[in-house]
Amino acid sequence: MSANLASFLYLVSGVLFIMALRGLSHPTTSRKGNLYGMAGMAIAIVTTLVYATPSFNGFVLIVAGIALGGGIGAVIARRIAMTAMPQLVAAFHSLVGLAAVMVAAAAMYAPESFGIGTVGAIHAQALVEMSLGVAIGAITFTGSIIAFLKLDGRMSGKPILLPMRHIVNAGLAIALVVLIVLLVTTQSTTVFWMIVAASLVLGVLIIVPIGGADMPVVVSMLNSYSGWAAAGIGFTLGNLALIITGALVGSSGAILSYIMCKGMNRSFISVILGGFGGETAAASDDGIERTVKQGSADDAAYLMANAQKVIIVPGYGMAVAQAQHAVRELADKLKEAGVEVKYAIHPVAGRMPGHMNVLLAEAQVPYDEVFELEDINSEFAQADVAYVIGANDVTNPAARDDKASPIYGMPILEVDKARTCLFVKRSLGSGYAGIDNTLFYKDGTMMLLGDAKKMTDDIVKAMEH
């Protein structure tokens, strides 16, 4: 295969990746977007195998690696629960970062194979690209591992606030710049591994102080990092497809992080510096009596059957209980009774972007019934019932009313403005942000304590009687 043909095919795969992102931007076109992405990746892999593989043995090794990795991926995809998707994404990001480090190391020790010079005489431009790729890759690797441990419950979701952490992080960042300059001037493998070590430590220190409330932003931020790491290594390899793909992933992840920070009223810089999330809230002086009104499935069925408008607010609790199909059945029952039903989605509901949208789409909830926060918040005041199913932090009035709260200023779904708020939750425990939800104690709130799926099923049964 000629270089021109390979470049053309890489360009085709890049266009398909762009079309994939365009398709994935809306649930109705997401399947088609996935197909575009798969086709683009297939073209890129086949082109690389035919054009860049130096020998038959190399071809066999690469195919064996693809088969092994693909087999592991297929098993994980079949076994993984939707509730574990955020930590799976974080784990996969770590592998992208590690791959960037390994490719950079290979280029450092065998530059002739990459066409970037010889040992001790690597082109300066390639060294800069390699340095950036390995630094971002190493940060992504350890940062993603910490995010995985936090999301999977193997490490506390609360922030670990190290003394002088900002000064230490700034010092490491400056050290990285100095080390990159030294690598370009000396081409020392010792300096190369010093860059790797400093980046690995920085990845841990960046993510450890970030609390649970900001973990969805962390996932999208690490997604962006992995893309830039891939793009940097793409320049080292001279691979057009990798450059395009990395740039697309990096830029889209950065844009998504910005959108999510805006949805949480967070400063992106403050989030990545570990300045928010998971702190203990100060005592609230909102005058709310700390008593809870607890109801049953029969009570909820009566209220919803006699309502004119019900807004359903899904959250992580729905994902844990796999209650999306029961929620869809409840909505169908209400619509049969002439009740208007809508769904309200917060930008950071769940633990990764689009988590709730995917679950509702899986349950075949009509897309035109699902609304984002800014489109539906004004309708809660006209709703008879807000049915909150495991959405804790994103419905907490403290974000609006309590200036002492660590989530103050974050836009919330104003479910407390509905005539009645039915809140399904296993217990009165705090959400992932680690703070109490004052909504539980409001006069218009009825707590439905129990498993979200069982409670919703019981409400449906009660409506049939």
From TrEMBL:
EC number, UniProt record: 7.1.1.1
Subcellular location: Cell inner membrane
Coiled coil location: none
Keyword field: Cell inner membrane, Cell membrane, Membrane, NAD, NADP, Translocase, Transmembrane, Transmembrane helix
UniProt-listed InterPro entries: DHS-like_NAD/FAD-binding_dom, NADH_DH_b, PNTB-like
Cellular component aspect of the GO annotation: plasma membrane
Annotated membrane topology: Multi-pass membrane protein
GO MF annotations, alphabetized: NADP binding; proton-translocating NAD(P)+ transhydrogenase activity
Record field: transmembrane: 6-23, 35-52, 58-77, 89-110, 130-151, 167-185, 191-210
Catalytic activity reported: NAD(+) + NADPH + H(+)(in) = NADH + NADP(+) + H(+)(out)
Gene3D superfamilies to which the protein is assigned, alphabetical: TPP-binding domain
Pfam name, any one: PNTB
Keyword Transcription: no
Domain called NADP transhydrogenase beta-like: residue spans: 8-461
PANTHER family: NAD(P) TRANSHYDROGENASE SUBUNIT BETA
Similarity remark: Belongs to the PNT beta subunit family.
Main function: The transhydrogenation between NADH and NADP is coupled to respiration and ATP hydrolysis and functions as a proton pump across the membrane.
Subunit structure and binding partners: Complex of an alpha and a beta chain; in Rhodospirillum, the alpha chain seems to be made of two subunits.
Protein's UniProt name: NAD(P) transhydrogenase subunit beta
Source species: Nitratireductor pacificus pht-3B
Lineage: Bacteria, Pseudomonadati, Pseudomonadota, Alphaproteobacteria, Hyphomicrobiales
